[in-house]
Amino acid sequence: MSKYFSTTIVPDIIDGDVSDIVGTSVGSDAGDVAFGANDILFDWTSFEIPRGASKLTSIMIYMMGEDGGVQNSVDIGLLFAKTENEVAPTSLGETNAAQTAGFDMPTHLIGATTLNVTADDGGHVFGPAFGGISVAGAVGANEGGFCPVILQGEPNTGTTTGYDKIYVAAFCKAGIDFSTGVKPDAVAATSTDTISVDGVDPRKCFQIGDTVYTNTDDTPLGTVKSMSDDGDSTYQIVLNANLAAQVEDNEEIVNANPIRITFGFEQ
């Protein structure tokens, strides 16, 4: 009898280089760094599935929108890979740039699919006031559908007994921007776990557990514990520990995890 399961991945699109995502200016506009056609949306990100072949039957992608708004409807290409002799696939290159590396990709590749979510297709879910939700499943052409993909990794390569490790990477067609417009309204020192911000409501741009940076520093500040509205268009972002670096007034707070993907499987 078939069984169904799902798993959610949250890629790190910054990976220690915040300039891939947003400019370094401080003030009213940090300078957006939008993704272009065929740019890497995120590099290889691992997840685990039960041992053996599994059929990928559904995909849902949530992407944060620019400055707390609605994300653009853009086609997304997904590549799936496995280890080869227990060696992981090598990096494809920098996020938000064309592929420049990953020459071993053909050896590791085990599947691929495209989410047709441009504005005239049915793969984009309309209605949310911020972000963007794209789906794919067993539906017709130009309706967000895709041919089911069979994924199977090398046996017992997962960290969990009886599970195999699979890798996924993504490319975008064009027009995605992950700037937030969330700006500190005062200096926040490393002796505190709280950043007071104004501008865009941070709850539109971050989720609990997301890793945050400023647009001028490649040091992650920490992970989000909670967010609240102070009134008068000011907000609080509380981290799980004191800030790892000082935050200056009017820097932009950037999210390393603006993408969430849920895969549904049948085995």
How is this structure best described in words?
Helices cover 1% and strands 40% of the residues. It is an all-beta fold and 267 residues long. The protein has two domains: 184 residues; 73 residues, Beta Barrel (Elongation Factor Tu (Ef-tu), domain 3), CATH 2.40.30. The radius of gyration is 19 Å and the shape is elongated.
Report how far the terminal alpha carbons are from each other. Answer: 9 Å
Number of domains: 2
Provide a count of the helices.
1
SSE string, helices as H and strands as E? EEEEHEEEEEEEEEEEE
Brief characterization of the structure:
This protein has one helix and 16 strands.
Q: What is the strand and helix layout of this fold?
A:
Blueprint (H helix, E strand, L loop, with lengths): L3 E6 L29 E12 L3 E10 L12 E7 L22 H4 E7 L8 E2 L6 E5 L12 E3 L11 E10 L9 E3 L9 E6 L11 E4 L2 E15 L2 E6 L13 E3 L3 E8 L1
Antiparallel strand pairs: 1-16, 2-9, 3-7, 3-8, 3-16, 4-5, 4-9, 6-7, 10-11, 11-14, 12-13, 12-15, 13-14
Distinctive features:
267 residues; mainly beta; Elongation Factor Tu (Ef-tu), domain 3; 6-stranded antiparallel beta sheet
